[in-house]
Amino acid sequence: MILINKFLILSIFIILLPRISFGNTNDYELYEVKNYHDQFCSKLVSNITNKNIEDEWITTEKRDNYQLLINNNKKIKLKLQSFVRKKEIQKLIFTFYSLLNKPILELRSNKNCKIKSARVLIYDKKDIPIKINSVDMSNYNIIETKFLNPDLPIINNESNKNIIGLIDTGINYTIEKFKKNIATKNKKIIGYDFWDNDNKPFDSDPRQNPFYPRHHGTTVFSVLSKEAPESKIAPYRFPANDMCKFKDLIDHIAENSIKLVSLSMGSDNILDWVCFKEALEKNKDILIIVSAGNNGFNIDKKPIYPASLDLDNIITVTSSDQTGRLGRGSNYGRSSVDFILPAERVEVIDHRGVRASTGGTSYAVPRLVALVSRYIDKNSKASIDDILSFLKKRAIQKGKKITKYGWIPDPLDNYLID
């Protein structure tokens, strides 16, 4: 989210009443929250003094782009975002928090203070978010429920042959067409959620907004399952809240004899990847194919990790269009990036199970992983050196040299595999 001078963010921290449940209809607490919304909204939009609000709330900090307030009487926390255009408020977002600053409820309203959406986050006994309820604030009825940690399906894809590890935001394992490619052992999914620390690696990334979580791993999985249809895939939800748990994640991969891994993520902070690097140095026979990133720069000069790590068991890939030109925003580097291949308009199945089109270096990774997986399927004893040699033979130089080994024009072609 880009902050500008005309963009006002008021951050108000409030502790919700102990008896708030938010999961029930016609709930008194929902009524009370709506009342706070109406009072704050009328004050901000009309720019007039609201005596009730002025008396109840204390401003603890105020800056150009946000304001902190607290209600000592009610002990309620709130984050209020105000979107301004031409000096007029266009939209307001109210986010309510629990005692431990857990997000509980979000209201979005227009410039006329009409609530356009309301979402409630429900947690289990371990404080893991399990569902989001959309609520009609005119009658407090739940109109839709989005599950964040659904039960695992029963799948019997027993296979120890050629399993791909997928490290991402998880997958939507309830999509029926995915089940044939999910790796299992004793009818249980091989994989793990190292974010929530449970065995349900469901696709959800709440870091930007927990009420509207992003989804990424499902689309990557769909490319792998399409282009390596005979392979089984073990999904792992990466440990965003403790990156050193990558040690445990890589150990889990090693324990399940997984030798090929897809990883479409990265950051510019090497400290995020110290434990990951140590784990890969210990497990030299695990090959991880990683994305170069989508910052639009040379990662030889501005490193992105793990793409820029100098390890023999990492292959870094970037994205091109169908003619071999570098994709818009795709990173490059003659030393740090090994291959480039078409991934700008890739057909995927998204988190809803709907066909869509996307692209970028995140999707160059599963395309290359699928190619390698098909090669391993025919060459089961191939080493990492053998795999790299095979890929180098598939690559050609075209135009300005921006990667170490060149462009692989058609990763779906089985040339040199059969």
Short description:
The chain is of the alpha/beta class and 418 residues long. It contains 7 helices and 21 strands.
Overview of this protein structure:
- The chain has 418 residues and is an alpha/beta fold.
- It folds into two domains: 8-147, no CATH class; 163-407, Peptidase S8/S53 domain (Rossmann fold).
- It has seven helices and 21 strands.
- The strands form five sheets. Strands 13-14-10-15-16-17-18-21 form an eight-stranded parallel beta sheet, with helices on both faces. Strands 1-4-5-6-7-8-9 form a seven-stranded antiparallel beta sheet, covered by helices on one side. It has a two-stranded antiparallel sheet with strand order 2-3.
- β4 (77-85) and β5 form a beta hairpin.
- The radius of gyration is 24 Å and the shape is elongated.
Describe the secondary-structure layout.
Blueprint: E1 8-12, H1 28-46, H2 51-56, E2 57-62, E3 67-71, E4 77-85, E5 88-97, E6 103-110, E7 115-123, E8 129-136, E9 141-147, E10 163-168, E11 184-185, E12 188-189, E13 192-193, H3 217-227, E14 232-237, H4 246-255, E15 260-263, H5 274-282, E16 287-291, E17 314-320, E18 339-342, E19 346-349, E20 355-358, H6 361-378, H7 384-394, E21 406-407
Main attributes of the structure:
elongated, alpha/beta, seven-stranded antiparallel sheet, 21 strands, 2 domains, single chain, Rossmann fold, 418 residues, eight-stranded parallel sheet
